[in-house]
Amino acid sequence: MKKIVIMAVALMLSPMVFGQTASDELFERYSGKDGYTSIHITQYMFQLFADLDTDEEMKEFTDMASSIDRMKILTVDSDSLHPDRASEFYTDARKTLPIKEYEELMVVKDGDQTVQMLIQEEGKMVSEFLMLVNDNTETVVISITGNIDLNQLARMSSKMNIDGLENLKELEENDED
To answer: For the chain, where are the alpha helices, taking DSSP H only?
Structure first.
């Protein structure tokens, strides 16, 4: 019995010891699979942006970039050979990610499309921003970690041409109301 308890505790602690989050697990599981596109932008890349000598218009972007540790994007489309691939991935993502541990910012439903924006906070800073986008033919999961100012992130998203990030403008628009 003692061995079982020790093994159970070791299994529960292993993600903490190795620093792997549920979103990391999800990205590792699907990254490189046929039909899935994964993007991992590291802190070093964001630091390169932050170190650029830029004009005033880009200053907000570079300030925001310096506060991001990483951004991971995973996207999948259904096709004629795999018509349920996107919805199956969305279901698996919702099972894998500890949604209850996040604070829900917003849910946007427009026809078949659902956009869910979630955050995890440490103190007064957002430590992770998670967005799930699903429209039954495409699913996108975006995870951004760091010390994040959501208003800056919403403004920055309009300058980046990354599928799914255009939904962040909803945050900025709602903040103005």
So the answer is: 2-18, 22-30, 43-51, 56-65, 85-96, 150-157, 169-176
